[in-house]
């Protein structure tokens, strides 16, 4: 793949010193204005059929771009129930913004309620060629409403995927209140996750091969809010809708 032609990378050298060093921002998305920046993002729509009906996890929602908006400096994804259908939103940066290594920081406000599954995550750029889990997956933040006050950070590899052992569930009493920051420090040799600047999980693989560490290639971002499913929970509380998931920014800084 010719990354010069296909990918958009934003590199900004900050003008002020930070402990004697400047920080180079590789990519920054602040969701300004009132429309999604289509130089960075793609919409994903439908129910995943025919290849991944239920998006591979028996999820209930149908993704529709009308439930994704940019407002007041935030990305806002809304989940609703209309009749017997659940509608929500999902976007990704595939073939537009793809990152290899860096300090990835996301500021977001969760949507709570049984059956909701908001997430900010990443997939390997080669997923169309090699499939999942060979592509690898980095889950910077996952929240499931059936387990309040808890956040998941996980990694899926060919050696451990689906019900992965490379995961950490963190109890945070006020996680549903206001905005919080979620960070992944991704290097050639390890990935470490932080919530509100506190380290919660560091992954160092047993081996540095494609089965155990498929993280030495570019990945792209995904942001979505699923409803139900194997992980989100099949017992959905219909009284909660509509619900909104807010993302203030994503920033990737070179290490």
From TrEMBL:
SUPFAM superfamilies per UniProt: Concanavalin A-like lectins/glucanases
Pfam families: Glyco_hydro_16
Domain GH16: residue ranges: 3-255
Keywords tagged on the record: Signal
PROSITE patterns: GH16_2
Cited InterPro entries: Beta-glucanase-like (IPR000757), ConA-like_dom_sf (IPR013320), Glycosyl_Hydrlase_16 (IPR050546)
Keyword Ribonucleoprotein in record: no
Signal peptide per UniProt: 1-22
Domain of life: Bacteria
PANTHER family hit by this protein: GLYCOSIDE HYDROLASE FAMILY 16 PROTEIN, GLYCOSYL HYDROLASE-RELATED
Family affiliation: Belongs to the glycosyl hydrolase 16 family.
Protein name: Family 16 glycosylhydrolase
Protein species of origin: Salinimicrobium flavum
Taxonomic classification: Bacteria, Pseudomonadati, Bacteroidota, Flavobacteriia, Flavobacteriales
């Amino acid at each position: 793949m010719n990354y010069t032609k296909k990918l958009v990378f934003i590199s900004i050298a900050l003008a002020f010193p930070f402990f004697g060093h400047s920080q180079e921002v590789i990519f920054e998305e602040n969701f300004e204005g009132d429309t999604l920046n289509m130089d960075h993002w793609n919409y994903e729509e439908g129910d995943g059929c025919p290849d991944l009906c239920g998006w591979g996890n028996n999820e209930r929602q149908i993704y529709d771009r009308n439930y994704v908006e940019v407002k007041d400096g935030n990305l806002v994804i809304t989940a609703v129930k209309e009749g017997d259908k659940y509608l929500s939103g999902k976007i990704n940066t595939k073939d537009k913004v793809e990152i290899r290594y860096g300090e990835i920081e996301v500021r977001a406000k969760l949507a709570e309620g049984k059956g909701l599954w908001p997430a900010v995550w990443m997939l390997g750029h080669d997923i169309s060629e090699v499939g999942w889990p060979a592509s690898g997956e980095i889950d910077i933040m996952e929240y499931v409403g059936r387990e309040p006050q808890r956040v998941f950070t996980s990694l899926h590899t060919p050696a451990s995927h689906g019900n992965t052992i490379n995961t950490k569930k963190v109890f945070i009493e006020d996680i549903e209140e206001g905005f919080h920051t979620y960070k992944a420090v991704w290097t050639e040799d390890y990935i470490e996750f932080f919530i509100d600047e506190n380290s919660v999980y560091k992954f160092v693989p047993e081996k540095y091969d494609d089965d155990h560490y498929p993280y030495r290639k570019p990945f792209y971002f995904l942001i979505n809010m699923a409803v139900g499913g194997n992980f989100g929970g099949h017992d959905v509380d219909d009284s909660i809708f509509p619900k909104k998931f807010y993302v203030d920014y994503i920033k990737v800084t070179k290490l």
